[in-house]
Amino acid sequence: MTSQQADNIVFASDLPLSSRLISLGEVIHFKKKQIIFEMGTVPEKLYYILSGSVRIVELSEESERLVPFTILQGNFVCDVRFLAELPLSFQVETLTDITLIAFSRSTVIRLLGGDPDFRHCLFRSIAQKMRCFGSTLLKTAYDDNLSRLMRLLESSAAEQDGVSTITMSQQELAEHLGVHRVTINRMLRKLQAQGCLTVNRERITLL
């Protein structure tokens, strides 16, 4: 089983926890290349990376290991799942020897209610992940539309003199896919750059 690490997003931190806050948690050490959180488990504590780094590993439908995120020291791990009390949809592996600070749920609740520094660090960590997740979702949606467009073109193509052509207008393609015409134009240009087709006025030729 191979790992795919394309478009990997690295979470760094410019707002580390103070030593005062770190002293309120439990220190835990892990060696390099260990699975520290299994998929399907619900985090019982909130973990902060004091030193080292981890990667998030997901499994595709084809059981391919995907590595969309790397998290460096100075960040929380599994923070969203911990707060929502939800099972992990991924596993977490150490990339280096690592030191974590584990905060119990009661400690987190107390700090969220009365410590603005802790609140600021945690919410900043979550906000950073949410921004990146949003960008990833937009990219995924765009890639899905690209695949849908290619399937539509292939199913609509008419064979003439050994050449597959599509006479549907870009507006008609947009209506079929439920997107804007400018999106179709952008995707056609991308497919043309990839050598999948050529566009000549309102005529599209598959290569």
Order of helices and strands: EEHEEEEEEHEEHHEEHHEE
Domain count, please report it: 2
Kindly state the mean pLDDT as a whole number?
82
What profile does the largest beta sheet have? 6 strands, mixed
Please write the CATH class name of the largest domain.
Answer: Mainly Beta
CATH superfamily of the largest domain: Jelly Rolls
Give the N-to-C terminal Cα separation. 33 Å
Structural class computed from helices and strand pairing: alpha+beta
**CATH topology (level 3) name of the largest domain:** Jelly Rolls
Number of strands: 14
Indicate the percent of residues in helices. 25-40%
SSE order and pairing:
Elements lengths: L2 E2 L4 E3 L7 H4 L3 E5 L4 E3 L8 E6 L1 E7 L5 E8 L3 E2 L1 H6 L6 E4 L3 E6 L1 H10 L1 H41 L1 E3 L2 E4 L3 H8 L3 H13 L3 E4 L2 E4 L1
Parallel strand pairs: 1-7, 2-7
Antiparallel strand pairs: 3-10, 4-9, 5-8, 5-10, 6-7, 6-9, 11-12, 12-14, 13-14
Helix pairs in contact: 5-6
Write a compact overview of the structure shown.
The protein is of the alpha+beta class. It has helices at 19-22, 79-84, 105-114, 116-156, 170-177, 181-193; strands at residues 3-4, 9-11, 26-30, 35-37, 46-51, 53-59, 65-72, 76-77, 91-94, 98-103, 158-160, 163-166, 197-200, 203-206.
Structure report:
This protein is an alpha+beta fold and 207 residues long. It has two domains: 3-137, Jelly Rolls, CATH 2.60.120.10; 157-206, Winged helix-like DNA-binding domain superfamily/Winged helix DNA-binding domain (Arc Repressor Mutant, subunit A, Orthogonal Bundle). It has helices spanning 19-22, 79-84, 105-114, 116-156, 170-177, 181-193; strands spanning 3-4, 9-11, 26-30, 35-37, 46-51, 53-59, 65-72, 76-77, 91-94, 98-103, 158-160, 163-166, 197-200, 203-206. Helix 5 crosses helix 6 (181-193).
